[in-house]
Amino acid sequence: MKLKFTKMHGAGNDFVVIDGVNQQIDFTPAQWQRLGDRRFGVGADQILLVERPTEAGCDFRYRIFNADGGEVEQCGNGSRAFVKFVSEKGLTDKQSITVQTKAGVIVPRLEANGSITVDMGAPVLEPGRVPFDAEGLHGEHQGDDTLWPLLLELGGARESVLISAVSMGNPHAVQVVDDVETAPVELTGPLIEHHVRFPNRVNAGFMQVLDRQHVKLRVFERGVGETLACGTGACAAAVAGIRRGLLDSPVRVDARGGQLSISWAGAGQPVFLTGPAVTVFEGEIEI
Asked: Where is this site: Could be important to modulate the pK values of the two catalytic cysteine residues (predicted)?
């Protein structure tokens, strides 16, 4: 079949966005993987599928497939692209929409200046619900947070890193580093992603604190590798930093592909993610 698609990005985190409202889409993991392939397909970090909702009270259903073909729960940058897509395609005339995701309902809003704010819901902080297996570990308290030691096997050597375990609908392991540019993202990112204590794998975040409202961040995303930005990763990093007593809301997050703004009022409150969404081009591919 010929598939119509739109290529988009949010702070360099790039997507293939597909209208599943007006097209019948039922692809295999291999077909999703081909779409995400940068040599044999369109190329993207994630493929986003817009569908009619299956839950009452929602405007759309939003599904996310990683470049490896696996479906995941949430994508913050993708949710902003989602809003811009449904608005540009005339699928809605609402400024604020209610969207069904695998991780629950989110409420993105198109701002007057063209940026998009997403209510990402309250972070999940209990280890077992992230999910993170903390059994037998002795956590180190910092502020309101608990830092958990992760033992990594590095070519016969062992190294322990301290992480905050946070879920923003998908799991994150956030560590503070002195310098994100020299942090061993490519070396330890895959080890953290596949660590046995994260049964669903995990996104590995490397955060450098510049001041109390400004950080730099790199994220090694599960099923993708390092991306130029990660919206849920930015949310998780800001939450971890605020809980550790290192940051104050709102937090500016500098990713390699652009800037995001995160606001969080504290425990039990939703996290708000604000940033850009850009349409790159449209096309068709035989799939």
From this structure: 172, 221
**What are the tens digits of pLDDT across the range 217-258?**
999 999 999 999 999 999 999 999 999 999 999 999 999 999
Residue labelled with tokens 């995160």: 262
Catalytic annotation, pick one of 47, 75, 173, 234: 75
Q: Is 22 annotated as a binding residue?
A: no
Whether pLDDT at 157 is above 90? no
Q: Residue 155's pLDDT band (boundaries 50, 70, 90)?
A: confident
Known catalytic residue at 75 = yes
Q: Please tell me the predicted confidence (pLDDT) of residue 207.
A: 98
pTM of the shown model: 0.90
Dist CA 163 CA 166 (whole Å): 9
pLDDT at 187 over 90: yes
Q: Does the annotation flag 13 for ligand binding?
A: yes
From 207, 230, 247, 262, active-site residue: 230
